[in-house]
Amino acid sequence: MSRLTYYGHACFSIELADGTKLLFDPFITPNELAKEIDVDAIEADYVLLTHGHADHVADAESILKRTGATLISNFEIVSWFGGKGIENAHPMNHGGGFDFPFGRVTYVNAVHSSSLPDGSYGGNPGGFVVETNDGSFYVSGDTALHFDQKILGERFQLDFGVLCIGDNFTMGPADAALAAEWAGLKKAVGVHYDTFPPIKIDHEAAKGEFAQRGVELLLPGIGETVDV
């Protein structure tokens, strides 16, 4: 079992049983809802970025430089951060996997867009499947519902997923619940909701959409840690 700490929007960390800390899509200091989070207290051994939008990478540079963590993302994003002095990095691309000391990471498809904060090309957006001794999980990144999510359920044995649910820019709860079912999930953590007016959701209605498909939806509070 792993422990997930939610830092608001689409940012969360996973702490594995061996103590390895994986941090995803850090967007904390610009997020008014996360103003109680001390970004300088967040530790990370690896920082994984699904795509280049500012609401997923805003705090990545500072955290990478402070912690010395390894950046994992697509080739274009790793190259862009290389220009900022981030050399401890591992580039990936869609469909490829790599065995890290903590487990295997596969960079999987997402249907969205991607550019970096200065307008640079961010490559194609993606998500991650992470396989560890503690279990395996799917991180959707920002995405629409797409049929590759059904393939994930056939290709991997997934223990949980972290799925965007905010609608407007990404899947809403109904589509995310179907994605969870396709991927064979029994438990999902919702992210990318409530931060901005267009993505505010009804929490109980969202949980109901998932329950109809036999999936438990967790919506931890910002700063809350849950077992997954």
TrEMBL record:
Keyword Hydrolase carried by entry: yes
Superkingdom, natural source: Bacteria
Short name of one Pfam family: Lactamase_B_2
Domain Metallo-beta-lactamase: 8-192
Entry GO MF terms: hydrolase activity
Keywords: Hydrolase
NCBIfam families: PRK00685.1 (NF001911)
Family: Belongs to the UPF0173 family.
Protein name as it appears in the record: UPF0173 metal-dependent hydrolase HAHE_24060
Lineage of producing organism: Bacteria, Pseudomonadati, Verrucomicrobiota, Verrucomicrobiia, Verrucomicrobiales
